[in-house]
Write a structure and sequence with these properties.
Length: 367
């Protein structure tokens, strides 16, 4: 068998082909084979019916992306709300190790973590791009990690349904007095805001909204935006569709990962999980924009629906109540105070550019 020439740092060294094969197998192939033999299979519990437009689709795309990018080394199985745990128990399921992953929204944990809502949306708060800038380019992610660490989980932005509409109401609103006693399905900080305005907020899972409207146990629904509202069937049960969605100007989902499971992953698989979530935040937002535009046209064309603006008196009362609520959340803990301060600074410093670009877009549309 003839010699094989391998280039070395100090020149050229001649070794046998058999020896060269031994170097290749021993130095390169064996570790690669060992890595390929290590596989993980994780379960993802979600807060949505499986495949639901917006967040349900995002959950599946994240799983598909991780499965493909990892070459099957990390396999994700997706489960809809109620298949493993109820919609509002996903954080607990990831925290206690029932599942390794969750796809949900931070606003659902408002009761046990007062500052959690800042990582989904805040009334009159950051829009989608502003929020992403706060999370990824400022200290938002570090604060988020610190907030969730006691629960044994970490979170990534993982899809975005964009700004929400103001909701579906069976009766027309003329002023704040019409909110008193109103039973409305709403979650997160928006629920507390409507309570302060005299309404009766009710936390109802996505799959149970229509039955609640049909039976008359609620008078109004704030869910998401036209595409999800249409798929859910809300235009058939309430006539007055309100905007702007002042209580939910942003709609990021979160992917929760068990810290115990996370630490067992090699570096490359950690990067795949993180990048799969980041990619879905970008695609989900674009997808929501396209779907919402088409769905709003369909809603207004097919159903006896009135698209209306909230009266200014309601917006003014809501902003006042929102400022008071945020100030109270800041006093719940030193960490909450830091989160509020960081979020408020981002809003103040980023809003001028957002306002200018919105004004430019309106001018172009009118030209």
């Amino acid at each position: 068998m003839g010699p094989c020439i391998i280039s070395m740092a100090g020149g050229v060294e001649r070794i046998s082909r058999r020896a060269a094969l031994g170097v290749i197998v021993g130095g390169l192939a064996a570790p690669a084979v060992a890595r390929a033999e290590t596989r993980w299979r994780w379960r993802m519990a979600t807060s949505w019916p499986k495949g639901r437009a917006g967040p349900g689709v995002s959950a599946q795309r994240i799983a598909d992306r991780i499965n493909a990018m990892s070459g099957g080394r990390l396999q994700i199985d997706v489960f809809g709300a109620g298949e493993i745990v109820p919609a509002f128990s996903v954080l607990d399921a990831v925290s206690n190790g029932t599942v390794e992953l969750g796809h949900t929204a931070a606003l659902y944990w408002q009761g046990k973590i007062p500052a959690a809502g800042f990582f989904t949306t805040v009334p009159f708060g950051l829009g989608p791009v502003e929020h992403q800038a706060w999370i990824e380019l400022r200290d938002g992610q570090a604060l988020w990690d610190e907030l969730y660490r006691p629960f044994g989980v970490r979170a990534f932005m993982a899809g975005n349904t964009g700004p929400s509409m103001g909701g579906w109401f069976k009766r027309k609103l003329n002023g704040p007095e019409d909110l008193r006693g109103l039973r409305i399905r709403i979650t997160g900080l928006g629920a507390e805001l409507f309570r302060r305005l005299g309404a009766v907020p009710m936390a109802i899972a996505a799959g149970d909204i229509v039955p609640a409207l049909e039976t008359g146990s609620i008078d109004a629904v704030e869910f998401l935006a036209p595409s999800t509202d249409l798929e859910t069937g809300l235009p058939r049960h309430a006539r007055h569709y309100y905007a702007p969605g002042f209580n939910k100007p942003n709609g990021p989902s979160e992917c929760l990962v068990s810290l115990t499971s996370w630490e067992r992953l090699p570096t490359d698989l950690k990067a795949i999980v993180a990048e799969a979530c980041r990619a879905e935040h970008t695609l989900g937002l674009a997808d929501a924009h396209e779907r919402n535009a088409a769905s709003l046209t369909e809603i207004l064309g097919r159903y006896d629906v009135s698209l209306e603006a909230f009266p200014r008196s309601i917006l003014e009362a809501a902003r006042k109540a929102s400022n008071e609520m945020i100030a109270e959340i800041a006093e719940t803990s030193p960490l909450a105070r830091r989160i509020v301060a960081s979020y408020t600074a981002a809003a103040s410093e980023l809003r001028s550019w957002s306002t200018l670009t919105a004004d430019m877009a309106r001018s172009i549309a009118r030209a």
